Amino acid sequence: MPDIMQACNGMSAEYLFQKDKQYDTSYDTGDKAIQCGRRNDIFKLWLMWRAKVSHRTNERLSVT
């Protein structure tokens, strides 16, 4: 399962997950989480856009 999460969500952001830590970096799970990256931000934007566009489209259809 972790390999699937890495493949789907991994952004390989070296600026976030640097290897020069005082601990074993293999325990860092940040690159496997959906919160790491911009995908969740764009998804929220898409949902908002989708809701607004469908709301306006329904208003236009009911007027005509």
From TrEMBL:
Q: Name one GO molecular function term.
A: pyridoxal phosphate binding
Cofactor (UniProt): pyridoxal 5'-phosphate
For this chain's UniProt record, which GO biological process terms are given?
A: carboxylic acid metabolic process
Keywords on this record? Answer: Decarboxylase, Lyase, Pyridoxal phosphate
Listed InterPro entries: PyrdxlP-dep_de-COase, PyrdxlP-dep_Trfase, PyrdxlP-dep_Trfase_major
Is the Ion transport keyword given for this protein?
no
Q: Which Gene3D superfamilies match?
A: Type I PLP-dependent aspartate aminotransferase-like (Major domain)
Q: May I have one GO cellular component term? A: cytoplasm
Family classification: Belongs to the group II decarboxylase family.
Q: What is this protein called?
A: Uncharacterized protein
Natural source organism: Protopolystoma xenopodis
